[in-house]
Amino acid sequence: MSDGLVYLDNAATTFPKPIEVLQGMVDAYARVGVSPGRGNHDLAMQADDMVAQARARVARFFGAPDPDRVIFAANATDALNTAIGGIVRPGDHVVATRLDHNSVLRPLHHLAAAGVIAYDLAPFDGRGFVDPAAVAALIRPATRAVVMTHASNVLGTIQPLGEIGRVCADRGVLLVVDAAQSAGQVPIDMTALGVSALAFTGHKSLYGPSGIGGLVLQPAVEVETTRFGGTGMDSSSLVHTRAYPLRLEAGTLNLMGVIGLSLGIGFVEARGLGAIHDREMALTRRLRDGLAENPGIRLFCADDLADHLAVLTVDVPGMDPQDVGAILDGDFGIAVRVGLHCAPMVHRDLGTIDRGAVRFSLGVFNTPDDIDRAIAAMDAIPHPRRR
């Protein structure tokens, strides 16, 4: 994208989408754009087969044993609401973290305000990581689940899920993971990591469209239905089916989104998770090193980029992040994310809750020239600290 827009807001939504994903979605939907599971004619059965194949691909991608426990949702937020609302019971306690996105924090706050549950938040350290011992210290007899992000959307730090999974297994507690940022960036094997339930979205690093995501469950995890409606089966009964995956899928699926999600995973698999991550992190180090030379910029948790995603968040003391973002966009054609990034506790702890910060997030189509343009643009901004 070096000839035009420099898009560095991939943690929000990856852009552009691979042309093969876009074209494949359109072609498949043009052929079989009907309701899956809602008829016994050939087109409906072909659509149902596409959905089944997508479930199997998602299960393999995340190391889950049962494709029927792949639940399609609108996005990771929708999936997390399904998981949290369907797992917790009155009187339960939940542990989350101060790194978490509002897609975790708001459902927990709502349930706590209603007197249904209590919850505590584990802190993160000065490098941006949650200590498994801090999670363990908050678990109590009433704790039903630990619900947490795999990778911070503000700091880019990848949390030690394997260690936390072992803590949860030892205490008999479920581990529910928000993989919105990590899915498609780093390998995730739910079984090896001890993850009970995993929420993901398609429109970020899986390079699918918006409006599709999902919840992947281990076979032993039971999630109660919180929404009810048509499923295409047992239609004579007013009781919503208890069978997975339709137990948690009410209404007609987003078939085009499911197709795009499957194609996006195929794109990631073809390029290789390791190759994608290594290339993006090389560019992230280039960006970090360039920005670190500017005395008017403060970088957060970027001294060591081990166990990181391609995300850098910075502050320009004396300047509103909105102004920095507007200058980058209007004067230099560089798109970044500014503000609180829907993660208020992170910003409270960073001291940026009043104004937020500026986030650079890279994707598979970024180039070294994009990074150099971003560094030069930040150098060209008349930062107050340098006046």
**Element-level helix/strand string:** EHHEHEHEHEHEHEEHHEEHEEHEH
Q: CATH topology of the largest domain, anyone?
A: Aspartate Aminotransferase, domain 2
Measured by DSSP, the beta-strand proportion falls in 5-15%
**N-to-C terminal Cα separation, in Å?**
33 Å
Helix content bin: 25-40%
Shape: globular
Domain module tally: 2
Mean pLDDT: 95
Q: Output the number of helix runs.
A: 12
CATH superfamily of the largest domain, called what?
Type I PLP-dependent aspartate aminotransferase-like (Major domain)
Report the count of strand segments.
13
Strand order of the largest sheet: 2-8-7-6-5-3-4
Low-confidence spans: none
Under the CATH scheme, the architecture of the largest domain is: 3-Layer(aba) Sandwich
Radius of gyration: 21 Å
Structural class designation: alpha/beta
